[in-house]
Amino acid sequence: MTYQDTAGAAPPHPSHGNKSIGQESLAPQQTRIMGSWSYLFAWLGGCVSIGTFTIGSGLVGTLNLLQVVVAIAIGCTVIGVALMINGQAGHRYGIPFMVQARSSFGFTGTRLPALVRSVPALVWFGFQSWIGAGALNLVSETMFGFSNIWAFFIGFQALQIGLSVLGFHGIKWLENIGSIFIIGSLIYMFFTVIGKYGTQISQNLINVEGTWGAPFWGATMLFLGIYSTMMLNVSDYSRELHDDVGRGRQVAIYANSILPATLFMGLIGLMVSGATGEVDPIKVFSSAVDNKLLLVTTLLFIAFAQVTTNILNNVVPPAYALMDVFKLPFRTAAVLVGLLAFATFPWLLVRDESAAGLNLFIQTYSAFLGPIFAILVVDYHVIRGQRLNLAHLYDPQGPYRGINPAAVIATVIGVGFALLFSGVSWYASLIPAGVSYYLLMKTLPSARRFAS
Asked: Which of 40, 209, 266, 370 could serve as 429's disulfide partner, Cβ 3.0–4.6 Å?
């Protein structure tokens, strides 16, 4: 297929018809399968992350309850705006993240953002799968007296791999149907925790001073950092959204899906850890819920939430990266992603002593994701004035061949600033990376052909 040069012109109007199940490609998306409500429910289901629970647990003794609520609100507001801004290329032209990055990093240079995006996805995939398997194992032990965490982990991975190969059709219906269960379960879990640990929560989280200083802003970055991966590859999702959904409505969709999930999970993690000192969500709810039926329902929710989050956030991005780098079909790439998640050793990540390490992991990968995000935004909105040349984006021998040195240098500069201010790494990287990329694109001779 050839792609007509669309620089300076509006892209072809995508249809809202049907496409085959599992038929995903890197070509410009001509068929959009998600309306506003489907897109909102997909994001809601994809954002119920046990990682958010862990972040909330790690803030005990640093912030009080009000400060955590405000930190989550700030982080989610930034997320909503950032997703809308960087998702415009995918929404308008129907291209995924790996294609979008070609204009700024080059065909070969996209290996850098692909690697930076894929590693956190695989780690979270393995981590959340182990949590889900632990929940199913406890259900089995409670109901039938059978316990084998490894059997449930392998089976749980097989289930997720099977759902992954269905592509965005599977994502759409899984997330849409599950969102009602997720909302109800989050509300139930939240008030269960308050009812059981209300006195301890008041003593340890409400009636404490906390701080509005650097740790507070660091907390906003941690909650933001959970989604910094998605802010990078949001075009993978926005290319599925009907093209008549405006920017204001997109921000509303992102905010109204991410904020509730993040607020509930973050606060639940903060409250139960502040009251009990426990950070393992399985242990928390097995002790907090006295009714067997309600316990089983809660544990099934935890397992189901890992599926909805993994399928949307942790399969699609690395699968697209494998499709681009190794020219694999989507289904093969999705299966490979599921198998690679085994190699992250998630059984080590769920230990109590690993909570601080996960926060450090988020800070570290955010230091690399922030600069790439800034480069993508400057490239699309400033350098190109929101106009892309599709013919060049799909021509490996064209002006975007090889590696754009401006993007690589700007990434290194941004990472340097991020590591220097590690507590707010994502924030600290944006301006240095964005400004240096713009200046290099204007002055570096070897980068000039990428400006076409």
From this structure: 370
- Map residue 329 onto helix, strand or coil: coil
Give the residue from 76, 54, 37, 303 showing the smallest Cα distance to 181: 303
- The answer to whether the beta carbons of residues 147 and 140 sit under 8 Å apart is yes
- pLDDT by 10-residue block (mean), the chain, 452 residues: 44 52 80 89 80 79 87 89 95 96 97 91 89 91 93 94 82 72 78 79 75 88 81 93 92 88 84 74 69 80 83 88 91 92 80 63 82 97 96 96 97 95 85 97 94 85
- Token pair for 410: 């700007």
Task: Dig out the tokens for 332 from the structure.
Answer: 């093969």
Residue 241 phi/psi, 5-degree rounding, is: -85, 135
Q: Are 172 and 237 in contact (CB under 8 A)?
A: no
Largest CA distance in the chain: 69
Q: For residues 67 and 277, give the distance between their C-alpha atoms in angstroms, rounded to a whole number.
A: 19
Q: How many residues in the chain? A: 452
Say what the pTM is: 0.85
Rounded CA separation 446/109 (Å):
14
In this structure, how many other beta carbons lie within 10 angstroms of the beta carbon of residue 280?
A: 20
214: Cβ contacts below 8 Å, ≥ 6 apart: 423, 424
* 335 beta partners: none
Q: Report the alpha-carbon distance of residue 336 to residue 118 in Å, rounded.
A: 12
